[in-house]
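User: Hey, my collaborator sent me this sequence without any context and asked if I could get a structure. I don't really work with proteins. Can you help?
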Amino acid sequence: MAGVMIVETRCSSPDELASYHQWYDEVHIPEMLEVEGFRSARRYAAADGETFLAIYEIDVDLRTAMAALDAARASGTRSKPVGVAVEPPPVIRFFEAIG
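Assistant: No problem. I've predicted the 3D structure and written it out in structure-token form, which is a compact way to encode the shape of the chain:
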């Protein structure tokens, strides 16, 4: 594994929670796993029940994965997020394996 991408999100409202999880699990993650270098994904819920974390394992150089993700976003073929809060915005970070 070359590294991981972590994404921290919140749902926009309690009424959207079921749709948010359905979109994330059934649409978004499969789309992400089509992007070059993204090989697996796991999701977690914080103890507060309001914050969610997705961890994507990446098996190519991080710059390659980031470029592939940018290209996928620019293609216009990605689904529109469902129920994802924009305030605060999602937090996205890439980490490179060091050991």
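In plain terms: The mean pLDDT is 96. You can pass these tokens on to your collaborator as they are.
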